[in-house]
Amino acid sequence: MDRLSFYTSKELKPRGWLRRQLEIQAEGLSGNLDKVWRDVRDSAWIGGDAEGWERVPYWLDGFIPLAYLLENEDMISRAKKYIDAIISYQRPDGWICPCSEEAIPTYDTWAVQLISKVLVVYYECSGDERIPNVIYRVLKNYYELLSSEKIKLFRWGKYRWFEAFPAIKFLKERYNEEWIISLARILKAQGTDYSTKTELWKTPLHKWTWDTHIVNLGMMIKYEAISCDILGEEYTDIAEKLVTVLSEYNGTPVGLFTGDECLSGLSPIQGTELCAVAEQMYSYEWLYAHTGDSKWAERLELLAFNALPATISDDMWAHQYVQMSNQIACMRMPNRPLFGTNAVDAHLFGLEPNYGCCTANFNQAWPKFALSAFMHDGDTIVSAIPVPSVLNTEDVSIELETNYPFENKFKYTAEAKKDMALSVRIPSFAKNICINGNTVSLSEGVTFSIPAGKKTVIEISFEALPVLTMRPHNLKSVKCGSLVFSLPVSYDKRMMEYERNGVERKYPYCDYEYIPTSDWNYAFSSPFFTVERREISDIPFSSENPPVVLKADMKKIPWGLEPGYEAVCAKAPQSTIPLSDTEKKELYPYGCAKLRMTEIPLI
Description:
The chain is α+β, with helices and mostly antiparallel strands. The protein is built from 17 helices and 26 strands. Helix 6 (110-126) packs antiparallel against helix 7. The longest helix has 18 residues, at 274-291. The protein is globular, with a radius of gyration of 24 Å. The chain starts with a strand and ends in a 6-residue tail after the last strand.
């Protein structure tokens, strides 16, 4: 398969549970951050006196596609207000970031890379014809500053050099001037070569370093896919080698790598930063588009259906900075944090626990995931992520009706003005695949003809069986299809309203501790599970009414607490000697279980 192209928010719209998920996001923190959070509301990007670096661009990177996917006119007008203000402050030489000319040499130009990417997103959503020239001037100025050695990449810009490439690709397709390629080469030459860093990832330290920073690494995975065509280099799938090392030494059951805030090893009580979830998803979207390789789509689903909803409250007004696989409480830790380089409140649900980057950056994850449902290669349309969506272009209309991943049934209804093809990706875990009533044997996917002028209906179903997968410390996790399942821990919430450093926490944008009220010290007593499917509620990843559960046989064991902590389970149980008879327990999807035990022994 050749390179795949993304559709825009004009052509691709969410339906069903996916649209509802985006509506919750719009009704929550994402859709209101410019009203309640000083770093966006009063940002220097729009002439205010608050933060003038990454937070407004981070927020816009998700707020813009969210607004256009939902066709929310109020949100669209608010996005335009921000873009208009940012453009109005662009200087004649092209510099666009809010800092004085004298400060440019010490200004971390990660913000230049980020705002350039955001401007591309805005153009793809709005079609605003001012934007190509704005991006041209931004990056031409960036090139002139770098090539003249008035500035150099350092800090975040050095470690995220490839984040400028969506805008570089955008310009090359429109202008194809030699300086654009020269800029790409300068960025790579001055940027970090992650292929030389892998030894550092094998022995996590309680030490902050650029080379092991989890968000840098989440972004990094895509660097070859996003840059090789521009640079005229061969694609070698370096991402697979990098992901393999990260997974072996820092992997989690939901496809994340621990990083609180830097790589943290294989313990189920270490955390992963929410920014890394969003950025790792974005990397996998680019990798699938570049390669057409199903492994990236499956990894993307694992993150989107598990790690993403798990670390955000049901109403999406609160989020964690870091999530843990085995998370029995979200309470402020006494005396010292468990985390490598994060504070004692990093795992609380709130407005900006630990640090505010995730408050702004988590917004991109769901909208960009929704825009990955369908891709295309010429006249071949690819159903990349089979979530409920409708695609309308000049040549074809396709609607996908499904409740995936909560059930495995799919109905495609397609009409085309010319002969086209629809390629449907079939996940590797699919069993007993049925197409239009006929059982078939497939490995990765199937392609259907869509003849011009005729309605084509395709119905597909398959089964996914619960399986136990091995984890370190002789623990196991349960996976069924793209969903990982956890033993949920019931909890009470303690709401905290206060002000700190000029930032107000006030309901609904306040902080919460989640205090456990049920037992969590269990082991599996049988490797067999029963799937029970239910209705999808108004909250798709509801912590109270999950749309699917597994029934499991479990027994209590003497697990114990991590030494020095009253609300953190030990990374491995003290013993697997049963303390109870077999109990029937319900396992929830990881994304529904805000407090949970995910890595559990089998006895």
